[in-house]
Amino acid sequence: MPITTPLTQLLGITHPILLAPMDVIAGCRLVKAVSHAGGFGVLGGGYGERAWLERETAKLAGFAAPFGIGFITWSLAKRPELLDIALAAKPSAIMLSFGDPAPFASRIKSAGARLICQVQDEAMARQALDAGADVLIAQGTEAGGHGATRTTVDLVPAIVDLAAGRVPVVAAGGIADGRGLAAMMMLGASGVLLGTRFYASQEADGADEAKRRICAATSGSTVRGIVFDLSRNNVWPAPFTGRCLVNDHARRWIGREVELMQNVAAVAADYAVAREAGNFDIAAVIAGEAVGLIHDIPPAAEIVERIAVEAEQVLAGRRNSIVSAA
Amino acid sequence: MWPDRRLIDLFKTELPIVLAPMAGAMDAELVIAVAEAGGLGSLPSALLSPEKAREQVQIIRQRVRAPLNMNFFCHTPIDLTKEAEARWKQRLTGYYTEHGLDPAAPVNAANRAPFDAAFCEVVEELKPEIVSFHFGLPEPSLLKRVKAAGCLVISSATTVKEAVWLEQHGVDAVIAQGAEAGGHRGMFLTDKISEQPGTFALVPQVADAVKVPVIAAGGIADGRGIAAAFALGASGVQVGSAYLRCPESKISAGGRKALAEAHDDSTVITNVMTGRPARGVQNRLMREAGPISPDAPPFPHAATALAPLKAAAEKQGKVDFTNLWAGQAVALGREVPAAELTRDLAKSALARMKALAG
Of A278, B99, B266, B320, which is most buried, counting CB atoms within 10 Å of its CB? Predict the structure, then answer.
């Protein structure tokens, strides 16, 4: 029996497993694979690049399974018209992260889509609920990419208590297997959102070398900070910082951020070249603390299936029975 | 009942709940209360003289029949150079002046000795069922003697690499200490504080990497957290902050007030209190000189020059220089007797597991 939660019921999905809308990585191929497997794919609308969004949403037209489209809220605010392109693709939900969702809520709702808001503390959760969020995602600091400081063990129950059953709460950060889904359900979550685990999947639009590095990484191989944002002249509002794999570039600049800022032109030029060339000794591989649990690059459907089966076993108290669905 | 009995069977306790050894914040009273409720009581012994340790263990043994854990540090002592001492004193001069203290007056050196032959004799004499270490393990000859005395040995890992190292060096269980945990980071193979993983990312990775039972530590202070830790592959949990406000703890009135007012983001990892990274409730010194300062001399020497400041401020009811160690779950601490809290934790964790078992 698949795990049924308020989230699966609300979104009409089989498994309470969401794909994180990873900028550039979560394209329509990955979204389709996750949703087709019974999870919920969320397209990585990211900062909002019109051409990319038009191309990817066009390929989602007529896709039958439920899916969502995600945006970085503060960036979307600079190009609000992109929301219309997203809504035209008839997603079940729009996911907004990092910023005030209120200015977009009514357009999303009147288009018949659900509003999913990712939050990093109670104040953001209240803001999202006031804006009419249908789902809250409590993102712990373990998560790859942008986030804040609180960890899942502390943040998830806090947001669950705050939501008080009004909306389902999804946990994000550091989760890559069925044990993580089961654990987050113990904390009161109705589901999980996974980024890094799906990055290392066959359908993710990431470089093979980046995927290989995720598989090779162990716990303590990631770091949260502002070095990679500074290095690509990408200024984020407080309190958000980014987590990525530790590489030569991170080692060189962590703790010397002021010096980096003083030399930003030269650093950014080198960084751009490295990104283009796929040189991940310099360019960051965005990844979370769950990297140590990731050792392979299977199809996304297999990931969904494995997590669902394992979580069910853990919740039922049948331990040490980690089974691959393959 | 408990879905994983490996730790209970190993320790021969009723519950898979370990009281964190919180040096300076507790003594035999808290150990007894937790042990009476079926948890594993841990006596922080690193700051005790052999006489005091003997006395504390005697009190515990008289009042409760239960396994006991004695905890020790095993850091490599680093001598304090004149330059480092002067630099730190210089950094603190303003505070000394403010409190009418003489920076040149002699102070007793901070007493945080690593586990040595003298401590080992105490262990051999008192035979605690379990000995836990922080900052790695003692040298092989001492470790051998502890094991020969019949003690089970456990220690903290903050990364998978440290967990594997501990297992290879013979521990009977590993404490997976996530970044949320209060007190000193147990880190001993790395010094990269910003790369320390959170508890729930670390626990399943450690559980995959070692065969011995894993004890989850950091941010766990209620039944939900315990149930979640088990789902991730832990065989037990270590809980500290939740017990700080219990009547049996040795926290001062000022400290209790600060704990009662603390919330989720009140704690930081700092090195200014002792010289080693540790998480605690943010105080004035951490705010103004840290939380991480290159001027802080190595462990435990940073604490030496702080002692007069701490005493002077505490006289005024202030915790400006007090190391009030606590984890991110500090706000979940309650003012209830420790035995009741222990039973509550177990009961609510089991209820949570049962509710979700479908």
Answer: B320
B222 interface with A at CB cutoff 8 Å: yes
**Which whole number is the average pLDDT over A46-52?**
90
Handedness of CA A94, A96, A101, A103 (dihedral sign): negative
CB spacing of B229 vs A154 below 8 angstroms:
no
Amino acid at A218: T
pTM, 2 dp = 0.94
- Residue-wise pLDDT for B36-70, tens only, equals 999 999 999 999 999 999 999 999 999 999 999 99
Q: List the helix and strand counts (H, then E) for chain A.
A: 16, 11
Nearest partner of B217 among B91, B84, B329, B105, judged by Cα: B329
- Nearest CA-CA partner of A21 in A106, A146, A127: A146
Q: What is the DSSP letter of B330?
A: G
Confirm if A156 and A122 have CB atoms less than 8 A apart. no
In one letter, which amino acid is A205? D
Average pLDDT in the A107-122 region? 97
Question: How far is residue B122's CA from residue B299's CA, in Å, rounded to a whole number?
Answer: 24
Nearest by CB to residue B190, choosing from A142, A153, A220, is A220
Q: Which residues of A touch B195 (CB under 8 A)?
A: 220-223, 246
Residues of A in contact with B225 (CB under 8 A): 153, 157, 187
